[in-house]
Design brief:
192 residues, alpha+beta, 2 domains, three-stranded antiparallel sheet, 8 helices, 16% strand
């Protein structure tokens, strides 16, 4: 995960119809300038988010902080919901609900081993909401919760061990199947 905000990836979102992470409100990024982005929300109102606010949020994500909507609203008044949705579209950013928060889902430093790099790629794929479009909102939330416990993993063995531990930990909850599913996905990814 790069320390600098990948502005070009935000620029690539122009014209796409996005949804807030709770999938309540749709919005579209109309344009991205050097110092701000302009979006239109579902009511037709225009909103602006400064590059400075996004850069501050990005710096906190890279530092390993979990950022809540309230923290994002402090960076750019009343824009936290939209900032979270935009930042969650970037590689290496995960999210969870209750409260809404975003975080680095990948290690902030790159692993040096081949296996570590493969695990990092897998976690990046798994953290991207577009990777599993078949997950409904509740399952996506459960998936993000489990992934939050895997963000600093450096090897396939460590990932497998954590997922087994999470399977046991969540045995009596709705989360019980998520680590098992992630283990299957990891094995398939590793076999590629």
């Amino acid at each position: 995960m790069s320390a600098s905000l990948p502005w070009e990836q935000i620029e690539a979102l122009v014209g796409q119809r996005l949804k807030t992470l709770a999938e309540v409100n749709a919005f579209e990024i109309d344009r991205v300038d050097s110092d701000e982005l302009v979006l239109t929300i579902s009511t037709g109102s225009e909103r602006r988010i400064t590059r400075k606010a996004l850069m501050r949020a990005w710096a906190r994500i890279v530092a390993g902080d979990e950022i809540t909507r309230a923290h994002l609203d402090e960076l750019e008044e009343r824009q936290g919901t939209y900032m979270a949705a935009i930042l969650a579209k970037l590689p290496g950013v995960g999210f969870a609900y209750d409260p809404l928060r975003i975080y680095a889902s990948l290690p902030t430093t790159q692993p040096t081993t081949q296996a570590g790099q493969e695990v990092t790629r897998f976690l990046g794929w798994a953290a991207n909401p577009d990777s599993c479009p078949y997950l409904d909102e509740e399952k996506r939330h459960l998936w993000a919760t489990v992934l939050a416990g895997c963000g600093r993993v450096r090897s396939w063995e460590e990932l497998d061990s954590i997922l087994i531990q999470l399977t046991n930990e969540y045995a009596d909850s709705k989360l019980r199947k998520v680590p098992l599913h992630l283990r299957r996905e990891a094995r398939a990814f590793r076999a590629l």
